[in-house]
Amino acid sequence: MAGTAPDLSALSLQEPRLTDLPKELLPQLLIAANDPxxxxxxxxxxLVRKEWAWMCRDGQIFxxxxxxxGYYGKYDSLKNMRAQLQQAGDLSAWFPPSDPKxxxxxxxxxxxxxxxxxxxxxxxxxxxxxxxxxxxxxxxxERVVVHLPDWLESLRETFEISETSPEExxxxxxxxxxxxxxxxxxTLRHVPFRMRLLRKYEKVARLAVDETxxxxxxxxxxxxxxxxxxxxxxIHREPRVLLNASNLFTQNDDDIYTRLVAEARDYARIYMxxxxxxxxxxxxxxxxxxxxxxxxxxxxxxVLYSFQEPNDEQRYRMxxxxxxxxxxxxxxxxxVETYEALDREYRLLTTP
Length: 352
Fold this sequence. Notes:
By secondary structure, this protein is mainly α. The chain contains 17 helices and no strands. The chain has helices at 25-33, 38-45, 50-58, 60-68, 78-88, 100-114, 129-132, 137-147, 151-159, 167-180, 193-196, 202-211, 226-234, 241-244, 254-280, 283-300, 312-350. The chain is extended.
């Protein structure tokens, strides 16, 4: 993905064509790979020097760029990819073009589409074998879930992911899940339950909860990192989430749960008192009152029989301010409700 440091493990001076690259070119290719728009950055290199322009026409620059950007996946060259696929004999799903430039442009086009929120609702074909067998499918899937995180569920169903799936499929699903939960932590629920207990999914769970605190309900209680997430990453941000997750605790957790409720209640009290003060003392209310009082003052100063209505700018501004004030009030009421709910729960737990 754009902005991610390229994997250089596939680069070697023993690889075909890379020995032909001018020593000034490879660093520029690496810079282009880190550009927010790497495809465009690579193509711009063709305009820098005549020698590089020739290498673009010859395909050498695009061969190297495909390797650096991970477009060849596990293969070290386009030639070797085609040879291995032919040897495997299964060409019914997809077979790559022979020209590195054509291959590069095809991958760039698909990645651009997958990154476009307007296009992502139409990504169903990406789960056919025509796409899932391509070496850059993981890059494609990661782009899709940035804008359509629930697509992770479709990916899981397509590959029938479970803890017994082939290692290559598990690695793919893990990488895509890590991206999806950073867009919406609730997508953690699409990871099979038993896999959420695996140590390798601790990072995925932490990313999910950091993005969406309520996603902690999808972390198994038996996971070693569950209590740490609840105590240090959830209740200070969203105290009420603890009540929503109360069914995850067992009788053996009574003391732990009581302490967590007490701590969450303290945070909820802080949020409540702050919200109440903000609602009563804020610039939004002051500005709204100034506009209204200005209209009343006009009436007092002689305009008794022809009240001057606010102009359009004032009217729209008043509507915006009223909406903001309503939002502040709704938030304040939610904080009060959260504190009262946690206070009732704590009293219930501590009353003999």
